[in-house]
């Protein structure tokens, strides 16, 4: 199974992160067919990365600025049977691509996603990870930093990581920074929607992969998407994203993003997983935090409160996005990635 790996980059501040990501892909047991690095409207960075990584295909984002355009550009360039996506501030375990590849023997499988673990503040730097320092045998970071005591696992999605409540097996949508799809499905579903997901907009929007996965399943109902926790990556969480202020802002932005998603694919499919998470997983998380507080873990009360605030801010963002609409410049349009 030939797998092309696409990494989207946009800023010089992640220079070491990007190189660490590329090094981790090169170290895969299942050798990548090619590595494609898409640079988002930054000519200086494009030139520097092309010179620094001569064995990598470095291209400019050919579409509108943002993560969706970068991913669509990577898909258009890719030649592999499968296209895998890795965040530019993440490193993949050596078995990452192998875990993806084993599922594609089943022709019904259209996409496979993996488990994303956090590299919290205090973890090894990207330069150390790039050169193999402070790693355990098998490629696992020797240290993963320190999770804030108040930070609930149910909301790890706010920092781009797998969250409590995800179960291996069939899933509605994959997480965009650790995902793979058969290249042929982009001709069926179209590309990632322009106007959904990360861009240079001031709010940390998301959900471009959610909207894409739902749209794919709507157009190809027999296609299966699978979550495999053996496909592991580690995603860096900078100090500013481990703060409560960012947590609230990210939850609100997720609500806005979900409003965009439901406008594209409908509320039934667009909110099915979110309803289950809100009605089952989150109440259990609150109860777990309160029990921990009673047993003497004062941070348990903080986790219970964070779950409550996170849900409220997400619902607030969704309500605002649904009632007033998101700005015209952020409205989704299906472009690119059609072959």
TrEMBL record:
The record places domain Glycosyltransferase 2-like at 4-115
GO molecular function per UniProt: transferase activity
Q: Which InterPro entries match?
A: Glyco_trans_2-like, Glycosyltransf_2, Nucleotide-diphossugar_trans
Gene3D superfamilies given in the database record: Spore Coat Polysaccharide Biosynthesis Protein SpsA, Chain A
Keywords attached to this Swiss-Prot or TrEMBL record, sorted alphabetically, are:
Transferase
State whether keyword Transferase applies. Answer: yes
| Name of the featured protein | Glycosyltransferase, GT2 family
UniProt organism field: Thermomonospora echinospora
Q: What is the lineage of its organism?
A: Bacteria, Bacillati, Actinomycetota, Actinomycetes, Streptosporangiales
């Amino acid at each position: 199974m030939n797998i092309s790996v696409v990494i989207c980059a946009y800023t010089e501040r992640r220079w070491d992160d990007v190189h660490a990501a590329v090094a981790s892909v090169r170290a895969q047991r299942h050798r990548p067919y090619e590595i494609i690095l898409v640079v988002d409207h930054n000519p200086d960075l494009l030139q520097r990365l092309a010179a620094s990584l001569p064995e990598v295909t470095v291209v400019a984002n050919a579409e509108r600025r943002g993560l969706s355009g970068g991913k669509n550009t990577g898909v258009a360039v890719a030649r592999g049977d499968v296209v895998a996506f890795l965040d530019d501030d993440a490193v993949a375990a050596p078995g990452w691509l192998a875990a993806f590849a084993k599922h594609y023997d089943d022709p019904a499988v259209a996409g496979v996603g993996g488990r994303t673990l956090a590299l919290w503040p205090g973890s090894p730097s990207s330069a150390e990870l790039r050169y193999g320092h402070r790693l355990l045998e098998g490629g696992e970071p020797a240290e993963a930093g320190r999770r804030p005591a108040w930070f609930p696992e149910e909301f790890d999605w706010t920092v781009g990581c797998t969250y409590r409540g995800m179960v291996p097996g069939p899933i509605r949508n994959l997480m965009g920074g650790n995902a793979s799809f058969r290249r042929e499905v982009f001709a069926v579903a179209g590309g990632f929607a322009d106007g959904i997901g990360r861009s240079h907009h001031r709010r940390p929007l998301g959900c471009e992969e959610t909207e894409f996965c739902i749209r794919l399943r709507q157009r190809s109902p027999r296609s299966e998407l699978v979550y495999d926790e053996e496909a592991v990556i580690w995603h860096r969480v900078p100090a500013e994203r481990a703060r409560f202020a960012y947590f609230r802002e990210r939850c609100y932005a997720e609500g806005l993003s979900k409003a965009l998603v439901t406008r594209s694919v409908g509320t039934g499919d667009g909110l099915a997983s979110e309803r289950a998470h809100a009605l089952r997983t989150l109440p259990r998380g609150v109860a777990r935090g309160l029990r921990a507080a009673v047993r003497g873990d004062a941070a348990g009360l903080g986790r219970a409160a964070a779950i409550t605030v996170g849900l409220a801010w997400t619902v607030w963002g969704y309500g605002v996005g649904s009632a007033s609409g998101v700005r015209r410049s952020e409205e989704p349009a299906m472009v690119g990635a059609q072959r």
